Structures are given as C-alpha cells and as structure tokens.
Amino acid sequence: PGPGPGPNGQDAGCVEPPPEDGPDAGEPADVLVPSRLLRRTALALRGEPPTDAEYAALEAAGDEAAQRAYVSAFVDRTLQQPAFYRTLFESARDWFNIPPVGPTADPPEYGLQQQRSIVRCPEGTPKAGAWKYFRDDANACQGQKPDGTPAEERTIEPWWAPGTTAVLVGKAASVSPTGQTYDASGFPVTVNCVTAGPVANCGCGPAAVRCHADRGSYPGWEDYGLHSPLGQRRLVAEEPARLFAHIGWHDRPMTDLILGSYSVGPTNLQAAYVMQGLAGELTYLLDDDSWWRPSRFANAPVDPEHTQGDPTAWREYSVPARNPFFLEERDYRYDPRTQTAAMKGIPAAGMLTSLGFLSTYPRERVRGARALEMLACEELSPPQGQEFNEYKRDPGTEGPCQHCHRRVDPAAIHFKRYAKIGHGFEGHGATYPMPGIGKVWHWNPRWRTSEYPFHTDPFIHWNRWYMPDTLLTPVTEAQAAANPEAVFIDFLPPEQNLLGQVSDGTVGPLGFAKLIVASGSFDRCVVRHLHAQVMGRDIDPTKEAGYLEDQVARFISAGRKVRPYVKALTQSDLFQRGR
C-alpha cells in the first residue's frame, strides 16, 4: 500500500487498496462511523474510552463531516494532555521491559545508592529526632562516643529536605579529614574521608550528601520496595521509559533517547549519579547543590504531572553535570592499545548510560543483546540445521553460538566500562567500577591472574571473556601483556561492522548508538513501536518493507518527533477504517 489522501482530504499514508476480487471488488472498505473512530482514537492516545460527555459533544457537533472534524480536534487536544504523556511512558515501559536492579544478597541489599543509611534517634533518648548511622554507633543517641565522651553533633541543611535543618549526631556528624577502618586481615587502616566516603568513622559530608535518610521500618526497604514511586530502585528502572515520554512530550527528536547527553529524574535518582562521580573521587561534587536545591533547577523542563522546581518531578538534567565520567563530548575517542594515559570517561548516551540499564544487566553481552532487541528490533534466534566450525575460545567466530555472537559482540564491545563489586548493604557497600577511567578504577596488573584479592567478580569475568584476539576483544596478546587495560577496548575497530556500519571510533554506548542510527534500524524500530501503539499492530518488515520505509520517511521528515507522526497515523486511511 502506498500513500494517498485520507477521508479528511489530507495525505496521511497507510492507505488500504480496494478489494481486487469477490462481491466487494472495486469498492473501498467501510470507514468507521465517527463514534467508533472517537473510541479508537481515545484508546490509542490515552488508553481509555471516551467519556459520556465526549460522546455527547460528538453528537452535538452536527453532520458527519462536523463529527469527523470534532475527532480531529480531539486528537489535537489529547496530544497536549498529561494522559498522552502517561501513555508514552507506559508503552515505553512495556517496550523496554527493564527490570529493577536485582538483589545481590538478602533483600533489601541491592546496591546502587552508594550512600550510608542514617536513621532518627527514637523518642525517649537524649538526642531524639537527630540522625545517626544505623549501625556501628550504638551510643550516639545518648550523646556519647563509645568511650563515654560527648559525641559530635552538627546542624545542616540536608539534601533530602532543602529549606529545613537536620541534626547529625555521632560519627555521622564527623568532619574529621581522616578516619580509621580495617583491612581484610583486621589491621587498622587510615583513610582520607574526603575521598573514601562515609566508611568507618568518617562523616556524611556537606549537606549530608554521602548519606541517605531512611524513615522506613528497616533501612533499605524504603528504596528497595517497588511499591514506593520515589524509591531509588524503582526510579532507576523507570528512567529510560520516562526519558522516552519526556522526549515525546517536549517535542524533541527521538534520537535524543540514545544520542543525547541529558536524562530525566527526581532528586533521589540524580543522587545515584552524583555518588558514582564521588566514587571516582571527583570531590568537588560534594559542594555542588544544583541537583538538590530547588532554586537551582526551578526552570528545568518537567513531566506534565508535576510542577517545575518540585524535587519529586521527572525533570531534565545534564548527565555529565551529575557524573562527569559520563562525558559531554560527542566524539570522544580512546584506544587503549596505543594510549597509556587514563581514559576520561565514556560519552553520555541517553538511556544507554542510564544507571538502571547498566546495573540491571551486569554483563556487556547481555547489554548489547538487549540494546539490539529493544532499539534496533533485532531478533536473536538460534539457528537450525546449520554446520559450524569447532568452538575453542571465541563464541563470535567459532561454534554454533557465533550465529548470534557475530551480531551481539560488535554491540557488546561498547558496554565494557561499567561493572559491580560487592553487594549493597543498607544503601552502602556495592561499588561500580568504570575500569580504566579516571584515577581510581585501576588495579595492580596481577588482576589478570584472578588470584586473591582478584578472585571474585568482576575480575574473573573479565579474565574469562576479555580474551585477546577475539571478536569482543580485538587486541593482540602482546598488547594485552604490555597494558592489561587494553582488554577494555570499547569501540568497534574498522575491520568490524555492526548492521553494516563502520564505527567512527567513538567509545562506549554512544558509539553503539551512532551505528544503529546510521543503519536506519533505530528509526525503523521506533516507528514500529509507535505504529503498534496507535494502530494496534506491528509492521512486518519482511512482508511490508515498502510500507515500513514509507512510514520511516514520514517520521524522519517530521523531525523524528512523536506528536506529528502519531497525528499522521490517526489521520491515515487504515486508522479511519479500523485496520
């Protein structure tokens, strides 16, 4: 089917040809009556049928032409209502299907926050209402140190409640530049509190940003439970879908979903990005209040369900401003085979560098496979009845698994530089190394042996799968021996391609994003999902290739924006005929 004028006289595409045989040969298919068209429109755009008042207004509009004009105006109104934002969010949430970050021990120990839990001192204690570390400071609420001397106390404006004051007591109130912890053998170790964070007897820092105020029945559950819409575990899972809805609502090009350096999130979500920057010892973030003080983000674009300046709103923010290891640069290149200086970071890439996506899928191949499925509509199915060469060490070039890995590994190579060590413990404990980046995430070259203390994840995973001279790790044995971090190469070399595209050398997930956009796969995938939302069915790329390309051309010509394309679909011949 090719484009043609719809019932309203506009060229909206999706035209169904008249039957070529049978009793209805040469006759156009029936057009939906205005009431059924209104119902279909309401279900497609807001997920619920028209109200009695809307049906009454349709009837009062006049003749059939006037009623169809009413439906067209209804589309325009609905596209500007919060219900349409909600539809975009819910459809994207189902589409991406990103689960919450899984627990790594007993719930609620799932990691991510990288902040130490503090709780209020109970009523009846000398320091009732003050905040203290949940563990390892038993006498703080009595106003005492373990030796019986007065405990430290400090009044602050906390990041979680701007414009108010809170009292920290005990170790949480410490402003000492050094603290003491213990190594694996039990020997005391002196740490720099500015860089180490709230470990041992180090304090919560300015505005208590190193800590998380927990009002739940047990520290951690407040953010772990998915019933809480403001719990960080739920927020990070929703961020990609919220970004999709934000881009559609604010009429941005949909390529921002994977090419942009911004995202959306409430204060409690942005805190996770700030903590990751602090984990890399970017200590100047301690004094940055732009992410938690409302006056600093009063003008940020937000979702239609909140007002600007609301700390709980899904507001737009610059990802590099929160975690500068996600770079603003759009063409950053780094080749560990030839460069020895530490890598600056990886470019921010919309949902592909969201902490929910990276943390939920802890392995680079899973990230690459899911990114191909979600954003390029690739189908990774096992082969049948084929013969393969013997598998020895590289699933990308050997054995039956290469059927998928020839596509997966050129995608997965872009997702190496984010991992996890340890498990979350009441908001603190798990760390997320970005190997080879900055000055912190480097280790003694012995890590390549997997011997103690490098006998656990992620080191054993890196050593098992980042093998030189493989599709995933295209470096030589000599290059890896000279620089063990060369195995973290995270751009596609020119001798490989992804979906027929050759990389420009951009590292990290942004390099992957550029490739799927250049191939056209991203645009086709977005169009298919928007088409399914509005029309009620997917487009089969094998049987409707011409129709799909026509729809993609319409989407691109409208600036890759959601509203114009959705409007065009509702005006199409097929939509108005109920097909």
Automatic annotation (TrEMBL):
Region labeled Disordered — which residues? 1-30
Q: What name appears for this protein in its UniProt entry?
A: DUF1549 domain-containing protein
Give the originating organism.
Answer: Pyxidicoccus fallax
